[in-house]
Amino acid sequence: MKKNINQLHQLLSGTTLTISYGIAVGLLLIGCGNYNSAQSSEIEIREENTSDRDIFGIFQQIIELGKDFSTFEDNSAQKKQVTPISFQELIEYLPQSPRGWTTEKLQGQTSSLAGYSVSQVKQSYLQKDKTMTVSIFDWTFNPALYLPFLLSTEFSQESIDGYNKGVEIDNIPGREAYNYHTKDGSLNLLIDRRFFVQIKGDNIEERELREWWKKIDSDSLSQVNN
C-alpha cells in the first residue's frame, strides 16, 4: 500500500497539468472525446499545454492504481457504482454569477471509456483581473477515481511560496492549494464519494476559495445520491 501511495504521489505531482494533486484525478477523462473508443456529447473540455495522449496515459495509470486501492478502508461504507447524471442536470448545481461578475461560455460533457463514465460541467466567472472557475464532476461512486483522491488528501506541503494540503470542510474531504506570489489557488472537494467539485482562482485572495465554496449547494448534491 505504501508503494502504491508513493506511485500516486509521483504521478499526480509529476504531471504537466497545472492543477493540484486531487483534481488531476478528476480531469483524466477530459480528453476522452477524441478517442474512437469513447462516447461523448456536447462540449469538450481540456487543460492547456496537455496533449490528449498525456491525459489518456495518466488515466490508464490511475485506473490501475485505483484497482490496487480496493483494500483501502475508512469509516464510510462502499457504495455501488451508478450511471452518471447528465451534464445538463449538473449545470443546475453551478453557482449563479455574483453581482459584479460576468460569465464565460458554459462547458459540459458526458464521457465514457472502457466501462468508466463521467459527467462534468465547467463555468468561469470574471471580475476585472480576477477569474474563478467552478467545475463539477459526477464520479458515480467509482473507486478507481475516488480512492486515489481520498488517499491524496493525506499529503500536505507548505513553504514560503504557498501550500498544497489535505482539508476537510463541512465534513467533506478535499485538497486546497494557494500560491502567495501569483495569487492563484484551488479548492477540490469530494461530496459523498460521488461529486467532485473544483474551485480554481486566478489573481484572487486566499479567502475567496472558501467563499465560493459556500455558493455551492453541497446538500442538494448529496441528496442526488438518495
Written account of the structure:
The chain is 28% helix and 29% strand. Mean pLDDT is 75; it is low at 8-56 and 73-77. It starts with a helix and ends with a helix. Helix 1 (2-14) packs antiparallel against helix 3 and helix 3 (52-68) packs across helix 5. With 226 residues, it is of the alpha+beta class. The protein has helices spanning 2-14, 21-26, 52-68, 87-90, 143-152, 208-213, 218-224; strands at 39-40, 102-103, 107-113, 116-127, 130-138, 157-158, 162-169, 172-179, 184-191, 195-202. The protein has seven helices and ten strands. Strand 4 (116-127) and strand 5 (130-138) form a beta hairpin.
Set out the fold topology.
Layout: H1 2-14, H2 21-26, E1 39-40, H3 52-68, H4 87-90, E2 102-103, E3 107-113, E4 116-127, E5 130-138, H5 143-152, E6 157-158, E7 162-169, E8 172-179, E9 184-191, E10 195-202, H6 208-213, H7 218-224
Antiparallel strand pairs: 1-3, 2-4, 3-4, 4-5, 5-10, 6-7, 7-8, 8-9, 9-10
Helix pairs in contact: 1-3, 3-5
